[in-house]
């Protein structure tokens, strides 16, 4: 085997991988048609047909409903906005506890805080990186009102089991499905199994509009509440005819006609965009089986993994080399990757200092929950020592290039003992 590049050898990949480009002439032509129409946004902040947006927004929502087999789709200007709208729609209020993952984009935990809710962190499964249902059960108290589950890296969480827990306890399940469009569990799309699902259309996702998001639900009232929150709904609660919405405070989470036009074209080719990421991720996973101490991504039985990220774990005690050194050697071989992912959210200063809204510490003044290091040992171990990720959505790679990525990892793994000796000396 050739000498490691880190030790003076030739790298396996001597050219960077090209970026994946999902935007083409179809999107350009769709945007041009919207610009020529002069209608770049058609939302109006009072009750009426335009309260629900213009023709492109409505067509995009209809296409999303058809594709994901749901009753309602509510477009928003980001998945973050969608999560905030979802929390308002299910009625989260001051002191309500919401169970969330510690290993996800910060917006997942910020959404309940915006309404005075209290994020409660439950640990994750080591193989899927998603919420552990047993940890969720232990975290439920009489104050629990919802679970927000993230389908991290494109693999579904144990959604059916979590929905069963939610029904048993009379609480809501909201799916943060930003990274998992077309992922499936038991023949059902991730994002459609909970009471509300939130999809991201950010520029580095499988399907994107630059910025944007989509919320889905099969519940009529939840859909209406999200539509109202999206568009200054406090002006329209009387006209909507739903008395229970009288205390609703709205925002501006509206999607433009330009974004919707791009989204329609992206959704039409969603099988292509998602399938290419899936092919890369699965080929990497298959090609890196059987390496001691390196655990490639798994796909739970009955699930479809769409590989927003190819996420492996390096078990340092078995591999005999620390992740930091393994990562340095991978970089020298030209394998683009990251380590750790996000810091467990409860370690952010906001939670450690218990100050969120205002100087007094609200809403943490309403709870005795302590956010301490060690509260979720699985996620801390994965963050500190194990995770190695390859961003499949960022890169375009044909089979030959994926084989080179596999070769690079196998090369480093095969010479890890020499690597460790060299570092020690």
Number of strands: 14
> Which class do the helix and strand fractions yield?
alpha/beta
Average pLDDT value?
A: 95
Low-pLDDT windows of residues: none
Helix content: 25-40%
| Major sheet: arrangement of strands | 1-9-8-5-4-2-3
Rounded to the nearest angstrom, the distance between the terminal CA atoms is 22 Å
Largest sheet: 7 strands, mixed
What is the succession of H and E elements?
Answer: HHEHEHEHEHEEEEEHHHHEEEHHEHHEHH
Number of helices: 16
> Oligomer, anyone?
single chain
Rg measurement, Å? 23 Å
- Give the overall form: globular
Query: How much of the polypeptide forms β-strand, as a percent range?
Result: 5-15%
Any overview of this molecule?
- This protein is of the alpha/beta class and 425 residues long.
- 38% of the residues lie in helices and 13% in strands.
- The protein is built from 16 helices and 14 strands.
- The strands form 3 sheets. A 7-stranded mixed β-sheet has the order 1-9-8-5-4-2-3, sandwiched between helices.
- Helix 4 links the parallel strand 2 and strand 3.
- Helix 2 packs parallel to helix 9, helix 3 runs parallel beside helix 4 and helix 3 packs across helix 7.
- The longest helix has 18 residues.
- It starts with 24 loop residues before the first helix and ends with a helix.
């Amino acid at each position: 085997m050739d000498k490691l590049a880190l030790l003076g050898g030739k790298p396996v990949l001597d050219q960077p991988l090209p970026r994946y480009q999902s935007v083409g002439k179809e999107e350009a032509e769709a945007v041009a048609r919207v610009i020529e129409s002069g209608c770049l946004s058609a939302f109006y902040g009072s009750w009426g047909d335009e309260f629900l947006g213009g023709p492109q927004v409505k067509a995009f929502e209809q296409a999303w409903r058809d594709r994901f087999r749901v009753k309602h789709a509510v477009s928003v200007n980001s998945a973050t906005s969608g999560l905030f709208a979802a929390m308002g729609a299910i009625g989260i209020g001051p002191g309500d506890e919401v169970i969330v993952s510690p290993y996800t984009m910060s917006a997942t935990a910020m959404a309940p805080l915006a309404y005075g809710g209290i994020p409660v962190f439950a640990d994750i499964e080591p193989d899927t990186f998603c919420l552990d249902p047993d940890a969720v059960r232990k975290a439920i108290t009489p104050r629990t009102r919802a679970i927000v589950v993230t389908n991290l890296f494109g693999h579904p969480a144990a959604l059916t089991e979590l929905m069963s827990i939610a029904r048993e306890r009379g609480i809501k399940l909201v799916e943060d499905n930003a990274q998992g469009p077309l992922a499936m569990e038991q023949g059902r799309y991730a994002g459609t199994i909970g009471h509300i699902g939130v999809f991201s259309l950010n520029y580095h996702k499988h399907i994107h509009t630059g910025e944007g998001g989509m919320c889905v639900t099969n519940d009529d009232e939840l859909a209406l509440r999200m539509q109202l929150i999206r568009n200054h709904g406090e002006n329209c609660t009387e006209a909507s005819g739903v008395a229970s919405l009288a205390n609703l405070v709205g925002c501006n989470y509206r999607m433009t006609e330009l974004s919707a036009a791009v989204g329609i074209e992206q959704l039409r080719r969603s099988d292509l965009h998602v399938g290419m990421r899936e092919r890369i991720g699965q080929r990497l996973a298959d090609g890196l089986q059987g390496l001691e101490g390196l655990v490639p991504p798994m796909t739970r039985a009955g699930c479809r993994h769409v590989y927003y990220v190819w996420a492996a774990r390096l078990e340092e005690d078995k591999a005999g080399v620390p992740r930091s050194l393994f990562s340095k050697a991978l970089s020298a071989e030209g394998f683009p990757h990251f380590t750790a992912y996000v810091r467990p959210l409860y370690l952010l200063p906001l939670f450690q200092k218990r100050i969120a809204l205002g100087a007094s510490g609200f809403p943490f003044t309403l709870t005795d929950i302590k956010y301490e290091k060690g509260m979720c040992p699985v996620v801390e171990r994965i963050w500190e020592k194990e995770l190695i990720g390859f961003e499949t959505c960022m890169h375009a790679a044909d089979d030959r290039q994926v084989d080179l990525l596999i070769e690079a990892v196998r090369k480093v793994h095969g010479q890890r003992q020499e690597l460790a000796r060299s570092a020690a000396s």
